[in-house]
Amino acid sequence: MTFARAGASATPGQDEGDGAGTESKALDIRFALKLGMVGEGSSLTEKFALVKDIGYDGIEIDSPAGYSGKEARAASEETGLPIHGVVDSIHWRERLSSPDAEIRAKGIAGLERALRAAKDSGASTVLLVPGVVNKVERYDHCYERSQAEIRKVLPLADELGIDICIENVWNNFLLSPLEMRRYLDELGPRVGSYFDIGNIVKYGRPSDWIRILGKRIKKLDVKGYHQKTGWCPIGEGTEDWPDVRAALREIGYAGWATAEVGGGKRERLAEILTRMKKCFTD
After folding, report:
1. CA 221 → CA 47, 110, 169, 214, 256, distances in Å?
2. Is the pLDDT of residue 10 over 70?
3. Average pLDDT over residues 102-121
4. What domain range is 101 assigned to?
5. d(C-alpha 185, C-alpha 231), whole Å
6. 132 in a domain, yes or no?
7. What is the CA radius of gyration of the chain?
8. Mean pLDDT of all residues in the chain?
9. Is residue 10 part of a domain?
């Protein structure tokens, strides 16, 4: 789902998503998982049918993958399970922040393929990790290079009507919600946040990020993380789900929440869905 962008001049606590009287409003969440989590089924159609039967509202696919966007769409239409998004599956390897122009070019080609796969499959977004900060990729260079490369594909994204969503990951980059907000606003309304609630627990409070990013958040990833013990089952971490729900209500979020954890067969996938639903329910 695409949301209108809050103004770039908004300040923390004054973004257009803030509102009063939302405490009792039920969250409008659609639940999904990543296709790679599905450990049953020998075909796309069988996997989609299983996910639909378990009770998920949709699914997210990869690009490039061993199937095309059109093949995925056929499975979606046959089973009635929507494809809501595409993950750029080469963004860690072919990084847009690389000092090597050839690697960046491969990254752009991969992002363009993912955008076309999203259009072909009926998805609305492409999830992107924009770069990595390390010994050879400085923070300021990562910022400048990744933005420059993303701008090259914005005309195609506009033509196709597909949003590019930046995920917060452990890449030593965009470590503050204020910086993430600025980064997104500098790229324009076609680029938003794919906010991973569990990923941010190591560095800050998810609810702070939600309130500051506001309407820039287009989709959510869900996993479990505990500040003392690390990765854990969904719902057993230190995300502070009551405050996460309150923050989502304040910004008026309505849309997809996608599990990104170890998958398996029917029983495991059903457990994940149950855990996610509990997290988003008062």
Report:
1. 20, 22, 11, 16, 8
2. no
3. 98
4. 29-279
5. 31
6. yes
7. 18
8. 93
9. no
